[in-house]
Each structure stands twice: as structure tokens, then as C-alpha cells.
Amino acid sequence: MVYILITPTSQSDPMKLPKSVQPIADVIGITQTLRLIGQLPVCQVRDKRYGAAISNRIILIVPVRLKPDDKLVQMVGYDDARKLVAHFGGEYLYPATCAEIYRDFLKKSAHRMLATGMKPTEIAEAMLIPYRTISRWLKADAIPTHDAHQSPVKILTATGENVESRRNVAN
């Protein structure tokens, strides 16, 4: 079995955090915030308006006084836990799950592994993600994307339409 160390995104890669997560990141940093959110327990909540709808939520209960054996200390370390208690002490925080950020991070990691020469089956095994998901992520970039400032002729050429027939119609 191959183990791959997946590191967080670099500081040069700007990341847009949800509004409910940004205050936490302002206190302890993006990397520690994402690590904390990944360790928080997920509870399922039933929507009152729609009986069958269930959503996932995470809750961060920040203690008023910090003890060395608190779970928050175990998750982020004493220094960052102390910062959270100083800023949010006694509050219940409901941050977003950041599932989109995590999924984008996994996709980028899969592309980096492919660039290093790993096969999609090896990537799926190393990341513990189904092969079909990995292959879908890797094929998504094979579809040509178009820049908004591209001319219509280039777009038509990329999509395979007959450029000459469009020119005759326009004249």
C-alpha cells in the first residue's frame, strides 16, 4: 500500500472561506481552521419545513475556561485553543462543513499525483476514494474550456462546429 502525504494548499493559492468559518480563520489561521473543522463531529438535522430533508451540521462549543485536557486542546493545540477561548469563550459556533473546499483540495491532489506519474487506480487506492470518482475528476479537465474574452471563431473551432457556415449566415 502506498501512503501519500497530502499537504494543505500554499499561501499563494487564495482560498475563499464561508462567512461562518472566516472569523475562526482570522483567529487561528486557515490551516488550523480546516484541521479543526475536519475533526468536529457531524450531526444530522431534519429540516422543519421539509420533513424528508436532512442536512449535516457541525457545532463548535468553545469553553469559557480552558483546561489542559479539553477536547479543543487535543484538536488544535494549547496555543490556538487559548486564542479561541479568548475570542469566542462560552459561545456555540456553527461553522460550515467546508465540504467544497475539501473536495477541491482532493481534486487538486489527484491531479498532482497524476502529474508525478501515478496511475488513476493507484491514486484511488492511496486516497481511499472510489476509482470512478477519481477517473471523473481527472477527465473533467479534458473537456475544453473557453475564456470569456475569446473570439467566437475560436470558440466555434474548439466545439467542432463549421465556422464557414456561421460566417455565411452572418453576411
Total helical elements:
9
- Which consecutive residue ranges, at least 5 long each, have pLDDT under 50? 1-13, 150-171
> What is the average of the pLDDT values?
79
Tell me the β content: 5-15%
Q: Oligomeric state of the chains?
A: single chain
Spatial extent as radius of gyration:
23 Å
Q: What composes the largest sheet?
A: 2 strands, antiparallel
- From the N-terminal CA to the C-terminal CA, the straight-line distance is 63 Å
Helix content: 40-55%
In N-to-C order, the SSE pattern is HHEEEHHEHHHHH
Total count of domains = 2
Give the strand order, joined by hyphens, for the main sheet: 1-2
Task: Report the strand count.
Answer: 4
Shape: globular
Structural class: mainly alpha
Structure in words:
This protein has 171 residues and is mostly helical. The chain folds into 2 domains: 1-8 and 99-171, no CATH class; 22-97, no CATH class. Helices cover 49% and strands 8% of the residues. The chain has 9 helices and 4 strands, in the order ααβββααβααααα. It has helices at residues 22-28, 30-39, 71-76, 78-88, 99-115, 120-127, 131-139, 152-159, 163-170; strands at residues 42-46, 54-58, 60-61, 92-93. The strands form 2 sheets. A two-stranded antiparallel sheet has the order 1-2. A two-stranded antiparallel sheet has the order 3-4. A hairpin with a 7-residue loop joins strand 1 and strand 2 (54-58). Helix 5 (99-115) packs across helix 6 (120-127) and helix 6 (120-127) packs across helix 7 (131-139). The chain is globular. 12% of the residues are buried.
